[in-house]
Amino acid sequence: MSSDANILTVDPVNGTTTATTNGHNPVKKPLKAGTAHPLDPLSPKEITAVSLALRKYTATETDVKAVKFINTYLLAPAKRDVLAFLGIPIETGKAPEPAPGSLPRRAESEYIDVLKGDAFHAELTLLDGEWKVDHVEKLPEGTQPLITLEELCLSEEMLRKDARVCKLAADVGVTPEQLHADGWAIGMDDRWPLKLRVQQCLLFARYGKDENLYAHPMDFIPVLDSNTFEVLAIDFASHRLDKENPPSTKPPAMGAQLKRERIPPPTMKHEYLPDLLQKDENFPGMRKDLKPLYVVQPEGVSFTMRGRELEWQKWKMHIGFDGREGLVLNTVTYNDNGVVRPIAYKLSVAEMVIPYADPQFPHPRKFAFDVGEYGMGTVANELSLGCDCLGTICYLPGCFVGHNGQPIIIKNAICIHEEDAGLLWKHTDFRPGGRAHSVRARKLIISMIATVANYEYIFYWQFYQDGTFELEIRLSGILNVYVLAEGEESSRYSTQVAPRIDAHFHQHLFSLRVDPMIDGLKNSVMETDVVPSEYPTGSDENYAGNAWTIENKIIKTTSEGERNWNAETDRRWTIVNPNRKHYASGQPVGYRVVTCAFPRVLAREGSWIRNRAPFARSNLWVTRYAPGRDWPAGKYVPQTHVAPEDSLEGWMKGGESIDNEDIILFLTVGTNHIPRPEEWPVMPADMFRITFKPVSFFDRNPSIDVPSTQDEKSRHAFGTANAPVPQTHAVGITPEAEAVVEATGHGAALNGHNGTHTSNGANGLHPNGTNGTNGTTVTNGTNGTNGGSCCH
Length: 792
Ligand SMILES: [Cu+2]
Prior knowledge:
It is an enzyme of class 1 (oxidoreductase). Residues 295-704 form the Copper amine oxidase catalytic domain. Belongs to the copper/topaquinone oxidase family. Its cofactor is Mn(2+); Zn(2+); Cu cation. The structure is a single chain. By secondary structure, this protein is mostly beta strands. It has four domains: 44-138, Nuclear Transport Factor 2, Chain: A; 149-277, Nuclear Transport Factor 2, Chain: A; 304-357 and 367-479 and 505-695, Copper amine oxidase, catalytic domain (Beta-galactosidase, Chain A, domain 5), CATH 2.70.98; 718-792, no CATH class. The chain is built from eleven helices and 34 strands. The protein has a 23-stranded mixed beta sheet that branches. The structure holds copper (II) ion.
C-alpha cells in the first residue's frame, strides 16, 4: 500500500462512508450516515429481513417445506417519482416535479422449492419497519431464475462423490481430489424436461495446489440436476482422428455412447502465478527492471460521496449494485454552470452472451448468458487496494442473497478513483513569441471486475471533464479450452494454443442498456451516415468532386428501431432531445455513441443462440421505456429455448413512436474472439470502449475552464534542466552501452544533443522546436513549455 493512500470506504452493512489515511486513522466523519437514495440497493440487513418475511410466509401460507433463495433485489420506485424525490427536473430549465413525501421501499425475490423444484417470484414492501409480502407467484413450469454461485460450486463437490464420474476420471489417471469442475448453464439440451434445473460441468484436472487447472482439460462433461445434484448424463465430444468418417454434430439420443477412445488430459504445466512459474526450470525468471510508479493524491480525491451518490467535476450520479447486473449507474446529471442537466436515468450491462463456434456436440451448448444466467454481481471480485486500482480509492460494497437467505457481502465490489488521462487539450501559437497552453485531462473511473469461471470481465465506467463518458470493457482471465487427442489437429473453429489444448472461437456480445434523459425524459435517436455528395465530379454542384456530407434521420417508430452499424458510412447514432437546439449549430442537443466494437452474432438464422438471444443480431435497438423493460433476453434466462415475449423483440412490436418519447436503447457491443497462443496461459486484457460524446449539447468546449497546473512531481528521467544528458538514456540504453554510443559519436549525431538537429532547431520556427518540454538549453525553441508552467 502506498504511504499516501487515502481510503474512503463504505460500511458494507449500513452503507455509511468513512475516510481514513493510511487505512488507519479517520480523518473525516461519515459524509452522511445512511444517506437514503431511492435507488440504493437493498442493504444486507434488508436482505436478511426480506428472507425472514418470505420464510414466515411460506411456513404459514404454503406447503413449501424447504426453499433456497436465488436472488433478492430492489424493486425500484417509478422513474418520475425518483426524479421528483431527488429534485432532478424531467426537462432541463423547468422546476422538478413536486417531491413525494416518501417513496415506498420495495423488494423482489426469487426462490426455489428444493423438494419439488418449483420456482417462485415474490414482491414485498417495507411498512412500518417490517417487510410485508405483497404477493407470491409460482413461476410457470420450466422457468428458471439465475443459477447461483453456490450451485456452481456445489457441483464440483458432488461430482467427486459420484462413482461413475470418479471411474471415468480414474480411467485417465485423475483422482477425485484432482477433479475440478466449472459449472455452466446447460445452454440447450432437450433430453430432460424443462422443469429440471440442469447444469453442465466442464472438467479439468489440477495436479497441485493453485496450479492452472485449465492446462489439463478433461474429455467428458457431466450434466447435473442443480437441485438434487444427481448426475443425469455424461457427455463426450467425439474427436476427429477418423477423417473418413467425420462425426455428426447432431446431439446423441439419451444413453447413446459415442464410439471413441478416451483422451487423457495433457499433463504439461502452464502456470501464471509467479511462485509456480519459478518452479519451472525453463522459466527465465521475473523481470527485474521495473521501478515503482505511484499514483499519489496528497490532498485527497476530487470527488465526494454521499452514501452511494457521487459528485465529481460537475457530474453527479448514484452508484447501484445488484446480483444480476453488478455495477449500475443511476440518475446521471451534469451541472452546467448552475443548471442541472439530466443525462441518463440508468446505465447498465443488462445482458451478455458468449456463443462458441465449434459445432461438435456438446460444445454448441456453450453460450453462457453471464448476466441473465449467472448474475454479474454475484461473481464480482473483492477488489484489492494497490493491485486492482492504483491511487486513492473509494470502495463501495455489493451484496446479494445466499441460498440460506443471508446476505453475501463483497466489501470492495466497486472501486472509484481518479486517473490522469493524458492531454485534455492543447494549442501552441507557432509564431515566434507565441504562447503554448496545455491542459491535462483527469478521468473518474468507477469499476467492477467479475470472474465468470475461467474469464474475467473488467468494467470501467469513465467520466471526463469535457462531458464525455464511456464504458470500457476489458477481457482477461483464461481461455475456455477442450482437450485434443494425440495427433488430433484443431478444427476450423479453434486455435491450438498449446499442445493438445484447444481454444474455441467465440464472441463476447454485451447488451448495454441505456435509459437516457438528455435534457429531459423526451428523447429521440438520430442516425447519421457520412456520405459522398450525390453530385458527380465536374457537375455544377460539385465541380472539383470533393463534396461529402452527412445524412441525418430520426428513428421514428419501433418498426424501424432495430438498427445496424455501417462501417462504410461511418454510421453513428446520437441520442437527442428534439425540444432543445444548440444556439449556433441549430442541431438538437445530444449525446453520440462512438465505438467500432459492433460485432453481431455469427450463428446462423434459426440457431439455438439466435432464438435465445435475439438482441445479439443487431447493434442497436430503440424502444419505449416501460417499467420492467430491463432484460433484453427475458427476465428468466436459464434453459429458455426462445426469448420470451416480454423481451427486446417483443418490445419492438406495435410500431410505437420512439420520437420525442421516453425511450431506452440496447446496444450490442463486444468482440469476436479468435484465441491467440499469446493469450495462453492467461490473457493480456483485450479492450474495447463505447463512448458517449456530447454533440451540440454544450455551447462550446465545456472543459475550457479546466485549470492548467504544472505537476510539481514531474522530473527529468536522467538529469536536470541544467545538466542535460544524452537522449540515449530515454530509450533505456544502459550506461555501458551509452559509453559505446558516445565513444562512436552516434548518440550526439542522432539525437541532436549538440543542437544541430533540425527538428529541435533553435530558430523557434519548427513546431517541435517551439514547445519542447525537456528544459534543456539547446534542444528547445524560443517559446517552449520547458522549465515553466504549462501555460505561458
Ligand atoms: Cu474471449
